[in-house]
Amino acid sequence: MILLHICCGPCSLYFVKYFREKNLPFVGYFYNPNIHPYKEFRQRIRALEEVQKIKNFEIIWDKEYGLRKFVKETFMLWDKPGKRCERCYIMRLKATVKKALEIKAEAFTSTLLYSVHQDHELIKAIAEDLSYKYKVPLYYDDFRKGYKEGQKEAIALGIYRQGYCGCIFSEEERYYKKRKKELLRQLKANDTFLFHQ
Ligand code: SF4
């Protein structure tokens, strides 16, 4: 059996299809202390519960809200997205490999390897390191090939799709791009104004 770390409902859909097509037994594992604020955390749990109900598969749940855990893990890295994400991947994948050992899974993998928005190579490298260290095989594939298909299915099923990665910083960053554009527009407008003085 493969232990599949699941970050959210929409990302789990492709894996259900993938493992079933290959006749590979799997169990999901929801462990994401990186999702904030609390309302969003609950909403993502509800979305995955919905997927679970439709697709009928087993999930090991950790429903404890992990804001403090996440902040402790990423301390001083808040404004360094690359380092912060690396710590965040390690935190979730380490918990997954430990859970795989605990339940005697034959291998582990993660829906993080499916996202086209994450640092795929870094996630793979971290998972390989953990696999070597804890002696639990990593089930690897470039699951990004199923991204479009999975997201299409999520839309068709009406599953909630979040607008940001998870942590409060990524929530800010999604608006920051728009804010930056707006600031530049205002600056340009001011320049024009000054130019005409
Ligand atoms: S942006 Fe995503 S991967 Fe990076 S720290 Fe935040 S929740 Fe984790």
Write up what this structure looks like:
The chain is α/β, with parallel strands linked by helices. The chain has a single domain (2-167), classed as 3-Layer(aba) Sandwich (Rossmann fold), CATH 3.40.50.620. 58% of the residues lie in helices and 9% in strands. The chain has 7 helices and 4 strands. A 4-stranded parallel sheet has the order 3-2-1-4, with helices on both faces. Helix 1 (9-21) packs across helix 6 (147-157) and helix 4 (81-102) runs parallel beside helix 5 (120-134). The longest helix has 28 residues, at 168-195. The radius of gyration is 19 Å and the shape is globular. Mean pLDDT is 92; it is low at 192-197.
Features:
197 residues; alpha/beta; Rossmann fold; four-stranded parallel sheet; 7 helices; disordered C terminus; binds iron/sulfur cluster
Helices and strands in order:
Elements (H helix, E strand, L loop, with lengths): L1 E5 L2 H13 L4 E5 L7 H18 L3 E3 L5 H7 L7 H22 L4 E4 L9 H15 L12 H11 L10 H28 L2
Parallel strand pairs: 1-2, 1-4, 2-3
Helix pairs in contact: 1-2, 1-6, 4-5
The structure holds iron/sulfur cluster (SF4).
The site of iron/sulfur cluster has 9 residues, from helix 4 and helix 7.
